[in-house]
## 1
Amino acid sequence: MPAHQLAPDIPDAPADVLADEQAHLAESREALRAMRAHAQSLSADAAGDWVSQQILQGLLDQRVAALADHPDTPLFFGRLDRSGGDELPTTIYVGRRHVHDGTSRPLVIDWRAPVSRAFYQASPAEPMGVVRRRRFGYHGGALTAYEDEPLAEGGQIGPSRILTEEIERPRTGPMRDIVATIQPDQDEIVRSALAQTVCVQGAPGTGKTAVGLHRAAYLLFTHRERLARSGVMIVGPNRAFLSYISSVLPALGEVKVDQTTVAGLLGEHAAPEDPEVAAVKGDARMAKVLDRALWLHVVKPEEGVVFTKGAYRYRVADHEVREIVASLRGTTRYAPGRAALAQRLAHQVLVRMEQRGESPDDRVQDAVARSKPVRQLVDAVWPKLTPEQVLFRLLSEPEFLARAAKADLSPEEQERLLWAKPYRSWKSAKWSAADAALLDELADLMERTPSLGHLVVDEAQDLSEMQLRALGRRCRNGSATVLGDLAQGTTPWSATTWEAVLTHLGQEGEVTELTLGFRVPREVLDYAARLLPSIAPGLAAPRSLRPGAGSLSVRESGEDGEDREGGDVLAAVRDALGREGSIGVIAPDALVPEVAATLAGAGLAHAVLSPDSAEEHRLLVVPATLAKGLEYDHVIVVEPADIVEAEPRGLARLYVVLTRAVTTLTVVHRKPLPAQLTA
Ligand SMILES: Nc1ncnc2c1ncn2[C@@H]1O[C@H](COP(=O)(O)OP(=O)(O)OP(=O)(O)O)[C@@H](O)[C@H]1O
């Protein structure tokens, strides 16, 4: 039954309940308009100077923008009738934002407020002071239905139709927020304390990404001032994924959250690299190697400094310089250590000036620190360096690498690290994605990387230990939400335990699990789960909320050539076009041009998803390596055997690809399917 035809579920509900609720919606909308008009009428002129005026105007503009009413987005989606006993109203409406009337009476309460928690958590077993929970159904922006759950009478409540319809809704366009239907176990994660790092293991479609985004929104609401200063960032696997999730936080009123990729954060280096080399570079042992490599540049001073002023010469003896260097080494980061060395040498010169009866001030000390003899000594003993210079030496000079690596890397590993064809200089070197994390580690050894207040890391199972360290630096004074699925690890260095991920991230946190799938129909999930014993034997088979009978079809095109397979893909696409919702044709990367050509040849308009693009088209051709995190109503997977063959963890890639479907999955193949799927 569509939502707008839902009947009231309580037998004695007055017929005009819906009309009353619609009136409350109209009143709330009007009140929001008034709040916005009031914000617009405020002037920044009250601020004293021009700069303060600009800052205040910026804040007022933000406030006005945040108070915009989006007619298609329900202003509230739930109502709680409470038994009272506290200072809060007995009836509250739960919505995306707070709305109050001219007398400050709350008409809608933000879903993130403490009192709204009961909307998500209350049950007949634990009613949390709620007598009745009401869920609203919308059609466009119009309130068209409601559904009641009595909580004070014990017993059980059946499944919510409004929730089921939301989950069954066909997917089109980018990801949407789930504020109206967050489940109790998801809500626990969303509302965990700011100081707490949470790590969520979850099968495909259990809502990990959704939960991470809502947690960011929750934390920003609850700790607005603190996080406005320190910042919240979302890190996802690629730009296509970021574009898919990009509208969730703005829809929740949060526009100031950076959403980026690891490459966006560490540098867009992408020189091709043998995965075996990348695996050594991604190993946490590299941290020690880099530390030694950097500090090997600080050499034992053999000479002192002579500073001449007028007729006088002030000398700091070599053994004194050695003492200063020794006392600084290991106690500061590299760059401040270098600055401190110059200052300490200058200080020694000043002491001698004072002994001679002069009274030099701070300016003299700075001048001495910047003088030529001091600079020359500092450059010789503690040279100015960039991360690129250090890594360049490490990857091109075998002896230097051996001194830095000591026993931490085997001779074979060292051999692997060295560039087969060294570059002429660090300036012309082409860095790989794995190098980016090494450069970042070196940068942090030189100068402390600032920390954010909270970091959400999605698809974290794919990150190398060195990448995790790089992300860990960015939340070392804050906390993190770490999301992923060990079964979906597709890099050679994919994590095998979450404890290890947290260790490299430098965070102590709890690992929790989400087990109920909201995306993939049961039949499809069971099919994909046949791969689990081979890719993640420790994980339990995922469960799906959606039965989806008839959602799976596997078509073999036989040995008689590609034409038949192309024909099968076309037939599946045409089938899907006749139904509602988005269509993703997921093909091995190497077959993408061929599949696109087949569609074009048949006159079927489509787009091809690329790593940097925000392609929006109902029919998309998706390279297998870009499918992670995405979903389509109808998924057509082309030639699974080639997907498996294409990379070392190809079976895990296939698992990712098979779990993108919301409504139907069609597998089209000519080559035999991987044995695990047919078992
Ligand atoms: N409580 C919920 N109510 C309605 N829809 C939900 C809920 N939780 C998740 N979903 C929907 O289920 C789908 C899958 O969610 P999401 O992409 O967050 O899962 P995931 O665990 O990150 O999946 P994957 O591991 O495949 O990346 C999305 O369409 C999301 O909106």
## 2
Amino acid sequence: MKAVQQKVAVLGGGSFGTVIANIMAEKGIQVSQWMRNAARAEEINRLHVNSRYLPDYPLSESLCATTDIEMALKDACLVFVSIPSQSFRSVVQLAKPFMPAGQRVISTTKGIEGESFSLMSQILKDELPDAKVGVLSGPNLAKEVALHQLTATVIASDDEDLRTQVQSALHQSYFRVYASSDMYGVELGGTLKNIYAIAAGLSAALGVGENTKSMLLTRSLAEMSRFAVSMGANPMTFLGLSGVGDLIVTCSSPLSRNYRVGFALGGGKTLEEAVESLGEVAEGVNTIRIIKVKADEMQIYMPLVSGLYEVVFNGAPVKEVVKALMMNEQSSDVEFVLPRDAV
Ligand SMILES: NC(=O)C1=CN([C@@H]2O[C@H](COP(=O)(O)OP(=O)(O)OC[C@H]3O[C@@H](n4cnc5c(N)ncnc54)[C@H](O)[C@@H]3O)[C@@H](O)[C@H]2O)C=CC1
Ligand SMILES: O=C(CO)COP(=O)(O)O
């Protein structure tokens, strides 16, 4: 595999941007990490730590942070964008003047832009029509990657060179990168699982049993696959790291911010309190609303999303919603993931 010799840019100063930037810096790749917060950039450059997002985790001394986006992007052969979905487009617009035609740009963001129902790869294609686009997604809790826990991820793109370059740039003894050409499916998997992580956190707070957890996880996978296949994704993708893999990790770990929002809701907090106490981005909250609207519009059967929507946004009592889900007409329930029409 051809090693990446040139410079790489990472846009975003949060947990995942920092972890991705650091993997490559540790390998001796020249990495420029752009962020808007000057104090944080200085801290990374001087003290080699990002105390706001990854406290107690020493960063490579060669990782270079900057608030100058032009400088960050200059001569970069790969650009990773690790910005929450609500600000993703505006940051890409800011970066656009400094990217040459054919620039390879990779989103690591697991969310949807509400008004346009665009995944981040679509935003990249809209804003940078000449760029080569990829998405990175998988079971990748930032704090575990930071601790060098053995981890795998997926790079998905139509562009084979991009896939190979990203594999080469990120591959480490503790980090394996698998390639996929189903960009849409990989991206949807990472985005949809956030919804079910909120449901898992909520049910954990309520003290449900192992049977219930298993039912929830498995039916979540069926539901997210059904939605994604209706939108054109490959169902097999959902049996991989960016589908069931990411669903398992996010639905089982308090390190997941979406799980923590659900747990707080289950503990009696309001949505505002749950989000406020998190102090970081939980993409799943907006994703529930966006997917509910889309599923209704396209008449895709998503009972878990509908139930969660009622609990989270309309204050419906969890017990009532769960009872209604369990008492649903049985004859429509088919336990099958393939083929396409049976999901
Ligand atoms: N943290 C994790 O374990 C993982 C996160 N992701 C995804 O990566 C994306 C980013 O997540 P994190 O880095 O974890 O988020 P985070 O909440 O830790 O950090 C977000 C960063 O984006 C910056 N930001 C927000 N709006 C901005 C703007 N307009 N201009 C410049 N900077 C802006 C913030 O200042 C912050 O540095 C999310 O979509 C998340 O789903 C993916 C895999 C793992
Ligand atoms: O996507 C993640 C792990 O793969 C991180 O999930 P959270 O955004 O819920 O922390």
## 3
Amino acid sequence: MSTEEQSLITTEVQTENTTRTDRPDETVLESRGLDVHYGDERALSDVSIEIPEHKVTAIIGPSGCGKSTFLRSINRMNDQIDACRVDGELYFHGKNVYDDDVDPVALRRKIGQVFQKPNPFPKSVYDNVAYGLRVQGLDDKLDLDDAVERALRGAALWDEVEGKLDSSGLDLSGGQQQRLCIARAIATDPEVILMDEPTSALDPVAASKIEDLIDELVEEYTVVIVTHNMQQAARISDKTAVFLTGGELVEFDDTATIFEDPADDRVEDYITGKFG
Ligand SMILES: Nc1ncnc2c1ncn2[C@@H]1O[C@H](COP(=O)(O)OP(=O)(O)OP(=O)(O)O)[C@@H](O)[C@H]1O
């Protein structure tokens, strides 16, 4: 490749990134004074944060600091844990998701989630993606075919599974299964995708594909990702929130600032590996 061609690609990539970074921050999710307890144990302490739309926000911090708890608070997955109590407010487009009139199932269609371990249903590739659409009432075969293809293309999986839509989702590789779960999440047209360590169970090549995919997904969705991998947070996120032990949100800022010039000494100590 000539130097001119290389610089063209570089310019394109930089332009894309600049566009994303320069996009004004429109808040899509906001927590105010969020406290979460499991029984008597406090897992999140007075967390206030504004998460911008169409950006990747990384949640980092040592084990047990409440990262997954925070993620589950956003789409009310914590409702399913009996011992869990949530106080404070969590707004999605200005509506408190803990208001009595919010249907958690409908909320989870708007705020999808992808987990650490790929968890396809024991069904065909097609049925994994079609599942949520059928639940929503879509039953026309052609419409379903279209929507399934769109979701699989959106998850960068279509080319690999086009000829085996009837095979079991469980027969795919780990990385493909995770992209199938992403396809399942985006099929119902969410606005936000929550990802809880989505690459930690994958080999480096499969993990890298998911990272590339996240970079594409954020054009259409907002991504909030919990990761233990600080290089990954630095590589893929626009904003980084650092939680520390006790469930305290210690600092939230542009990712470059968090990694290069954090305001809080504890964040610097954590990033440089002095603890955690
Ligand atoms: N289902 C639960 N029941 C009781 N306590 C829980 C439950 N889930 C989490 N906790 C507790 O809440 C605290 C925060 O846990 P959480 O899983 O949110 O942290 P985390 O930062 O995601 O941890 P890790 O990085 O190890 O996954 C921990 O002390 C944990 O033991």
## 4
Amino acid sequence: MKSAYIHIPFCEHICHYCDFNKVFLKGQPVDEYVQSLIKEFEIVLNETPTQNLDTIFVGGGTPTSLNEQQLETLCKGIRKYLPFTEGEFTFEANPGDLSIDKLKILAEYGVNRISFGVQSFNNELLAKIGRTHRVEDVYSSLEKAMQCGFTNLSIDLIYALPGQTIDDFEATLKEALDLQLPHYSSYSLIVEPKTVFYNLMRKGKLILPSEDVEAEMYKMLMSQMETSGLNQYEISNFSKPGYESKHNLVYWNNEEYFGFGAGAHGYINDIRYSNAGPLKKYMQPISEGKRPIFDQNKITKKEKMEEEMFLGLRKIKGVQLSHFHQKYNENMMDVFKEPIHEMMNRGLLTMNNDFLYLTNRGKLLGNEVFQAFLL
Ligand SMILES: C[S@@+](CC[C@H](N)C(=O)[O-])C[C@H]1O[C@@H](n2cnc3c(N)ncnc32)[C@H](O)[C@@H]1O
Ligand SMILES: C[S@@+](CC[C@H](N)C(=O)[O-])C[C@H]1O[C@@H](n2cnc3c(N)ncnc32)[C@H](O)[C@@H]1O
Ligand code: SF4
């Protein structure tokens, strides 16, 4: 499998929790940015010819903050330069941003999956975390998307938000699940440096649910998803059979992908790289026909094996011993003897005949487990 990620770094508002690479849309050189992206496709594909991509993911920032014309130009450029015939083609969207005209353009160019940043079904909480959409927008956006023929729809939720109670999250989950979508992602809030929430926290003005409450919310999430027939396939991701996000599985399976756009990261021919994040630093080299690389690293075999574990253990089915042997010609139980034993003794990892995977307790302490594999 091979993929492409394309980053659109514009947002019509900045949420209080978000530290992704993004800028306030107003006054930005959006047309020039779209042209730079297309030029970047051309430069990179020239340098690294590729047979076929299995998935494309346009994320952000907010891809749907582009206007109709910009969306169409971008989609045309994608289809012209990226070798993609069939597979998963996702756009991220903010509820309320998608007009029928925009949806028609996406459909026309082969987009077949939309992931909406819903976050919560509580209008008060939405306002508190700095979102501008309201619950009504979620319903109208989903309805429009379905009208335009989209069936592979997903929503993102965040839990353990400031002031959020277990009952509140339960109500949000119920509304989300009543929609009977084929895919859901639900992340626990991370308070990231340089965000509004971080500053509030430092001043002691951010009241967050306790760790115990957060763990309760996660357990409730898993059990409600299961009751609704959704299969947990990764720490934070749930789907109906066949609707797992193939793009994200490329990351967790430690496979390769191009990263296009400001701040995007990629992994091609054993090199992990990231593009320059600030718009000017991204666009300048491209205008001279050069790649906008900020940093790159050749990945050694040892690092590759570590990443295989670090990423692969996020999947609920875990990492496969026979696949590891086939890929690296090494025995996983030898290479990672110590962390595997330690994590198994602590009841965080377990094993069946060919898979090493997280226990229920391990799912709650995932980050500790993943870290242990960085030798
Ligand atoms: C970077 S956003 C981009 C998509 C779109 N602009 C949006 O806001 O929905 C992708 C997802 O990351 C999640 N996310 C962003 N910041 C987060 C944080 N600090 N903690 C937990 N989840 C976060 C949100 O669920 C969000 O939908
Ligand atoms: C947090 S995930 C949400 C995925 C969503 N839940 C789904 O199922 O499609 C998506 C975000 O991760 C970030 N992201 C993903 N791949 C990336 C890459 N290759 N380079 C930079 N950022 C990336 C982007 O900010 C993007 O909005
Ligand atoms: S969460 Fe989405 S809309 Fe909000 S600032 Fe981040 S990228 Fe923009």
